[in-house]
Protein backbone atom coordinates (compact mmCIF):
# COMPACT_ATOMS: atom_id res chain seq x y z
CA UNK A 1 0.00 0.00 0.00
CA UNK A 2 0.93 3.68 -0.28
CA UNK A 3 1.77 5.37 3.02
CA UNK A 4 2.93 8.90 2.36
CA UNK A 5 3.30 11.37 -0.50
CA UNK A 6 5.37 14.52 -0.73
CA UNK A 7 6.09 17.23 -3.33
CA UNK A 8 9.17 19.45 -3.18
CA UNK A 9 11.20 21.77 -5.38
CA UNK A 10 14.02 19.87 -7.02
CA UNK A 11 16.83 22.42 -6.90
CA UNK A 12 16.61 23.24 -3.19
CA UNK A 13 14.44 20.45 -1.73
CA UNK A 14 11.95 22.97 -0.32
CA UNK A 15 8.81 21.02 0.75
CA UNK A 16 5.64 22.31 -0.86
CA UNK A 17 3.02 19.84 0.32
CA UNK A 18 2.66 16.39 1.88
CA UNK A 19 0.07 14.11 3.41
CA UNK A 20 -1.13 15.47 6.75
CA UNK A 21 -2.68 12.31 8.22
CA UNK A 22 -0.87 10.82 11.21
CA UNK A 23 -1.98 7.21 10.72
CA UNK A 24 1.23 6.39 8.86
CA UNK A 25 3.18 6.63 12.11
CA UNK A 26 1.12 3.75 13.51
CA UNK A 27 2.60 1.28 11.01
CA UNK A 28 5.88 0.81 12.85
CA UNK A 29 9.52 1.77 12.59
CA UNK A 30 9.87 0.72 8.93
CA UNK A 31 7.38 3.33 7.77
CA UNK A 32 8.94 5.98 10.02
CA UNK A 33 12.32 5.17 8.51
CA UNK A 34 10.78 5.42 5.05
CA UNK A 35 9.35 8.87 5.83
CA UNK A 36 12.72 10.01 7.14
CA UNK A 37 14.48 8.86 3.99
CA UNK A 38 11.80 10.41 1.78
CA UNK A 39 12.49 13.85 3.30
CA UNK A 40 16.21 13.27 2.94
CA UNK A 41 15.85 12.23 -0.71
CA UNK A 42 13.72 15.29 -1.47
CA UNK A 43 16.71 17.48 -0.56
CA UNK A 44 19.05 15.41 -2.72
CA UNK A 45 16.81 14.82 -5.73
CA UNK A 46 18.77 17.18 -7.97
CA UNK A 47 21.77 14.83 -7.70
CA UNK A 48 19.87 11.84 -9.00
CA UNK A 49 18.11 10.89 -12.19
CA UNK A 50 14.56 11.87 -12.97
CA UNK A 51 13.14 8.51 -11.87
CA UNK A 52 14.56 6.59 -8.92
CA UNK A 53 13.76 4.04 -6.25
CA UNK A 54 15.26 3.50 -2.81
CA UNK A 55 14.52 0.21 -1.04
CA UNK A 56 14.54 -0.44 2.70
CA UNK A 57 13.60 -3.71 4.36
CA UNK A 58 9.81 -3.44 4.26
CA UNK A 59 9.16 -0.13 2.50
CA UNK A 60 10.57 1.76 -0.44
CA UNK A 61 10.66 5.32 -1.72
CA UNK A 62 9.91 6.02 -5.38
CA UNK A 63 10.23 9.48 -6.87
CA UNK A 64 10.21 11.34 -10.17
CA UNK A 65 11.58 14.78 -10.97
CA UNK A 66 10.18 16.94 -13.75
CA UNK A 67 9.91 20.65 -14.53
CA UNK A 68 11.77 21.63 -11.35
CA UNK A 69 9.56 19.58 -9.02
CA UNK A 70 10.05 16.24 -7.28
CA UNK A 71 7.19 13.89 -6.41
CA UNK A 72 7.91 11.23 -3.80
CA UNK A 73 5.94 8.32 -2.39
CA UNK A 74 6.58 5.80 0.41
CA UNK A 75 4.96 2.40 -0.06
CA UNK A 76 5.41 -1.30 0.67
CA UNK A 77 8.19 -3.05 -1.22
CA UNK A 78 5.52 -5.45 -2.46
CA UNK A 79 3.53 -2.61 -4.04
CA UNK A 80 3.96 -2.81 -7.84
CA UNK A 81 6.42 -0.14 -9.06
CA UNK A 82 4.30 0.47 -12.15
CA UNK A 83 1.39 1.49 -9.89
CA UNK A 84 3.66 3.66 -7.75
CA UNK A 85 5.01 5.57 -10.75
CA UNK A 86 1.54 5.77 -12.25
CA UNK A 87 0.37 7.28 -8.95
CA UNK A 88 3.20 9.84 -9.05
CA UNK A 89 2.36 10.66 -12.65
CA UNK A 90 -1.26 11.38 -11.74
CA UNK A 91 -0.22 13.50 -8.74
CA UNK A 92 2.12 15.42 -11.01
CA UNK A 93 -0.61 16.17 -13.56
CA UNK A 94 -3.05 17.39 -10.92
CA UNK A 95 -0.45 19.56 -9.21
CA UNK A 96 0.63 21.22 -12.47
CA UNK A 97 -3.00 21.92 -13.28
CA UNK A 98 -3.59 23.41 -9.84
CA UNK A 99 -0.57 25.68 -9.47
CA UNK A 100 1.30 27.94 -11.85
CA UNK A 101 5.08 27.91 -11.92
CA UNK A 102 5.34 31.47 -10.62
CA UNK A 103 3.40 30.59 -7.50
CA UNK A 104 5.52 27.51 -6.84
CA UNK A 105 8.76 29.46 -7.30
CA UNK A 106 7.55 32.19 -4.93
CA UNK A 107 6.91 29.80 -2.03
CA UNK A 108 9.19 30.51 0.93
CA UNK A 109 7.47 28.79 3.87
CA UNK A 110 7.56 24.98 4.13
CA UNK A 111 4.33 23.21 3.14
CA UNK A 112 2.69 26.43 1.94
CA UNK A 113 0.62 24.43 -0.55
CA UNK A 114 -0.63 21.94 2.01
CA UNK A 115 -4.21 22.35 0.76
CA UNK A 116 -3.23 20.13 -2.16
CA UNK A 117 -3.17 17.25 0.32
CA UNK A 118 -6.91 16.76 -0.23
CA UNK A 119 -6.30 15.97 -3.88
CA UNK A 120 -3.42 13.65 -3.03
CA UNK A 121 -5.55 11.78 -0.49
CA UNK A 122 -8.23 11.08 -3.09
CA UNK A 123 -5.71 9.66 -5.54
CA UNK A 124 -4.01 7.75 -2.74
CA UNK A 125 -7.27 6.07 -1.71
CA UNK A 126 -7.87 4.88 -5.26
CA UNK A 127 -4.36 3.48 -5.61
CA UNK A 128 -4.60 1.72 -2.26
CA UNK A 129 -7.60 -0.09 -3.68
CA UNK A 130 -6.35 -1.31 -7.09
CA UNK A 131 -9.71 -2.89 -7.91
CA UNK A 132 -11.21 0.58 -8.15
CA UNK A 133 -8.53 1.94 -10.48
CA UNK A 134 -9.83 3.17 -13.79
CA UNK A 135 -6.30 3.51 -15.18
CA UNK A 136 -5.51 -0.19 -15.13
CA UNK A 137 -5.94 -0.50 -18.88
CA UNK A 138 -3.49 2.36 -19.44
CA UNK A 139 -0.56 0.80 -17.59
CA UNK A 140 0.79 -1.06 -20.62
CA UNK A 141 2.76 1.91 -21.96
CA UNK A 142 4.29 2.72 -18.57
CA UNK A 143 5.10 -0.95 -17.93
CA UNK A 144 6.97 -1.12 -21.23
CA UNK A 145 8.84 2.11 -20.44
CA UNK A 146 9.85 0.78 -17.03
CA UNK A 147 11.10 -2.38 -18.71
CA UNK A 148 13.15 -0.46 -21.28
CA UNK A 149 14.34 2.24 -18.86
CA UNK A 150 14.03 0.95 -15.30
CA UNK A 151 14.27 3.36 -12.35
CA UNK A 152 17.73 4.14 -11.04
CA UNK A 153 18.18 2.16 -7.82
CA UNK A 154 19.75 4.28 -5.09
CA UNK A 155 22.04 2.34 -2.79
CA UNK A 156 22.28 2.99 0.96
CA UNK A 157 25.95 3.96 0.51
CA UNK A 158 24.91 6.93 -1.60
CA UNK A 159 22.92 8.36 1.31
CA UNK A 160 25.71 8.14 3.84
CA UNK A 161 27.15 11.53 4.89
CA UNK A 162 30.65 10.88 3.53
CA UNK A 163 29.24 10.01 0.11
CA UNK A 164 26.65 12.73 -0.31
CA UNK A 165 28.77 15.04 -2.46
CA UNK A 166 31.07 13.33 -4.31
CA UNK A 167 31.10 9.69 -4.98
CA UNK A 168 27.38 9.84 -5.59
CA UNK A 169 27.77 12.08 -8.62
CA UNK A 170 30.27 9.66 -10.11
CA UNK A 171 28.05 6.67 -9.38
CA UNK A 172 25.07 8.29 -11.05
CA UNK A 173 27.04 9.43 -14.08
CA UNK A 174 28.31 5.91 -14.60
CA UNK A 175 24.74 4.66 -14.94
CA UNK A 176 23.59 4.04 -18.50
CA UNK A 177 20.88 6.67 -18.49
CA UNK A 178 22.88 9.45 -16.83
CA UNK A 179 26.10 9.76 -18.78
CA UNK A 180 27.39 13.12 -19.92
CA UNK A 181 26.63 12.13 -23.50
CA UNK A 182 22.93 12.03 -22.68
CA UNK A 183 22.93 15.83 -22.58
CA UNK A 184 23.72 15.84 -26.27
CA UNK A 185 21.38 13.04 -27.27
CA UNK A 186 17.72 13.06 -27.99
CA UNK A 187 16.56 10.02 -26.05
CA UNK A 188 17.69 6.68 -27.51
CA UNK A 189 17.07 4.82 -30.74
CA UNK A 190 14.86 1.77 -30.84
CA UNK A 191 16.58 -1.48 -31.80
CA UNK A 192 18.18 -1.60 -35.24
CA UNK A 193 16.11 -3.13 -37.99
CA UNK A 194 17.23 -4.69 -41.26
CA UNK A 195 17.06 -1.34 -43.06
CA UNK A 196 19.35 0.33 -40.52
CA UNK A 197 21.82 -2.56 -40.57
CA UNK A 198 21.91 -2.40 -44.36
CA UNK A 199 22.56 1.37 -44.31
CA UNK A 200 25.36 0.96 -41.74
CA UNK A 201 26.94 -1.89 -43.71
CA UNK A 202 26.87 -0.04 -47.03
CA UNK A 203 28.26 3.16 -45.51
CA UNK A 204 31.12 1.29 -43.84
CA UNK A 205 31.83 -0.58 -47.07
CA UNK A 206 32.07 2.70 -49.00
CA UNK A 207 34.22 4.21 -46.24
CA UNK A 208 36.70 1.34 -46.54
CA UNK A 209 36.78 1.72 -50.35
CA UNK A 210 37.56 5.44 -50.03
CA UNK A 211 40.24 4.92 -47.40
CA UNK A 212 41.91 2.20 -49.46
CA UNK A 213 41.82 4.30 -52.62
CA UNK A 214 43.11 7.38 -50.81
CA UNK A 215 46.09 5.53 -49.36
CA UNK A 216 46.82 4.03 -52.77
CA UNK A 217 46.83 7.49 -54.39
CA UNK A 218 49.19 8.80 -51.69
CA UNK A 219 51.52 5.86 -52.28
CA UNK A 220 51.48 6.34 -56.07
CA UNK A 221 52.07 10.08 -55.76
CA UNK A 222 55.02 9.47 -53.46
CA UNK A 223 56.64 6.86 -55.74
CA UNK A 224 56.03 8.66 -59.04
CA UNK A 225 56.59 12.15 -57.63
CA UNK A 226 53.27 13.44 -58.93
CA UNK A 227 52.12 17.00 -58.48
CA UNK A 228 50.02 18.30 -55.59
CA UNK A 229 46.75 17.50 -57.39
CA UNK A 230 47.16 13.83 -56.57
CA UNK A 231 47.54 14.62 -52.89
CA UNK A 232 44.35 16.69 -53.09
CA UNK A 233 42.55 13.72 -54.61
CA UNK A 234 43.91 11.51 -51.85
CA UNK A 235 42.74 13.99 -49.20
CA UNK A 236 39.27 14.01 -50.81
CA UNK A 237 39.10 10.21 -50.66
CA UNK A 238 40.01 10.25 -46.97
CA UNK A 239 37.56 13.09 -46.28
CA UNK A 240 34.84 11.10 -48.02
CA UNK A 241 35.73 8.13 -45.79
CA UNK A 242 35.40 10.27 -42.66
CA UNK A 243 32.05 11.66 -43.82
CA UNK A 244 30.71 8.14 -44.35
CA UNK A 245 31.92 7.10 -40.90
CA UNK A 246 30.16 10.14 -39.44
CA UNK A 247 26.99 9.10 -41.25
CA UNK A 248 27.27 5.72 -39.51
CA UNK A 249 27.60 7.60 -36.21
CA UNK A 250 24.37 9.48 -36.92
CA UNK A 251 22.70 6.17 -37.77
CA UNK A 252 23.70 4.69 -34.41
CA UNK A 253 23.58 7.69 -32.06
CA UNK A 254 20.39 9.83 -31.76
CA UNK A 255 22.04 13.26 -31.76
CA UNK A 256 19.42 15.96 -31.21
CA UNK A 257 20.32 17.82 -34.43
CA UNK A 258 20.87 14.61 -36.41
CA UNK A 259 18.63 15.62 -39.33
CA UNK A 260 20.37 18.87 -40.30
CA UNK A 261 23.71 17.17 -39.67
CA UNK A 262 22.65 14.29 -41.92
CA UNK A 263 21.73 16.75 -44.70
CA UNK A 264 25.05 18.55 -44.35
CA UNK A 265 26.90 15.24 -44.46
CA UNK A 266 25.01 14.14 -47.56
CA UNK A 267 25.79 17.43 -49.29
CA UNK A 268 29.49 17.11 -48.43
CA UNK A 269 29.63 13.53 -49.71
CA UNK A 270 28.04 14.61 -52.99
CA UNK A 271 30.64 17.38 -53.37
CA UNK A 272 33.41 14.85 -52.83
CA UNK A 273 31.94 12.60 -55.54
CA UNK A 274 31.85 15.52 -57.99
CA UNK A 275 35.49 16.34 -57.26
CA UNK A 276 36.50 12.69 -57.73
CA UNK A 277 34.53 12.31 -60.98
CA UNK A 278 37.70 11.96 -63.07
CA UNK A 279 39.17 9.41 -60.68
CA UNK A 280 36.18 7.08 -60.69
CA UNK A 281 33.84 5.53 -63.20
CA UNK A 282 30.22 6.59 -63.32
CA UNK A 283 28.94 3.41 -61.68
CA UNK A 284 31.03 3.96 -58.54
CA UNK A 285 29.96 7.60 -58.36
CA UNK A 286 26.28 6.63 -58.62
CA UNK A 287 26.75 3.81 -56.09
CA UNK A 288 28.30 6.16 -53.50
CA UNK A 289 25.57 8.72 -54.12
CA UNK A 290 22.81 6.12 -53.63
CA UNK A 291 24.44 4.81 -50.42
CA UNK A 292 24.69 8.34 -49.00
CA UNK A 293 21.08 9.17 -49.88
CA UNK A 294 19.86 5.87 -48.44
CA UNK A 295 21.79 6.46 -45.20
CA UNK A 296 20.30 9.94 -44.87
CA UNK A 297 16.81 8.56 -45.48
CA UNK A 298 17.28 5.95 -42.72
CA UNK A 299 18.53 8.62 -40.29
CA UNK A 300 15.33 10.60 -40.91
CA UNK A 301 13.14 7.52 -40.46
CA UNK A 302 14.78 5.97 -37.38
CA UNK A 303 12.45 6.05 -34.40
CA UNK A 304 13.67 7.50 -31.12
CA UNK A 305 12.63 6.37 -27.66
CA UNK A 306 12.27 9.77 -25.98
CA UNK A 307 13.64 10.38 -22.51
CA UNK A 308 10.52 11.92 -21.08
CA UNK A 309 10.58 14.21 -18.09
CA UNK A 310 7.02 13.11 -17.41
CA UNK A 311 5.71 9.58 -17.42
CA UNK A 312 2.51 9.78 -19.39
CA UNK A 313 0.32 6.72 -19.34
From TrEMBL:
Any one Gene Ontology molecular-function term assigned to this protein's record: SNAP receptor activity
GO cellular component labels: endoplasmic reticulum membrane; Golgi apparatus
UniProt feature, compositional bias: Polar residues: 17-26
CDD domains tied to this protein: Longin
Keywords on record: Coiled coil, Membrane, Protein transport, Transmembrane, Transmembrane helix, Transport
Region Disordered: start-end pairs: 1-29
Main location: endoplasmic reticulum
PANTHER family xref list: VESICLE-TRAFFICKING PROTEIN SEC22B
Stated name of the protein: Vesicle-trafficking protein SEC22a
Organism: Mizuhopecten yessoensis
Amino acid sequence: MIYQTMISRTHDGHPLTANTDTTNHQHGSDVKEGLKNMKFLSRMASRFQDRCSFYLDAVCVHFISALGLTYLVVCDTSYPPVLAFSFLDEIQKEFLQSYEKNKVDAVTRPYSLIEFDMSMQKVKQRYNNPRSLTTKLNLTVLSEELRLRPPYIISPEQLRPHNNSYNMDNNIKSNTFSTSASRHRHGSYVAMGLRTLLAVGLSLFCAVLNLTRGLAVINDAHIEDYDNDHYQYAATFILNCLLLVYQVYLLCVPVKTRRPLACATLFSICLCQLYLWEYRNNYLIIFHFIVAVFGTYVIFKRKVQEKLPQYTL
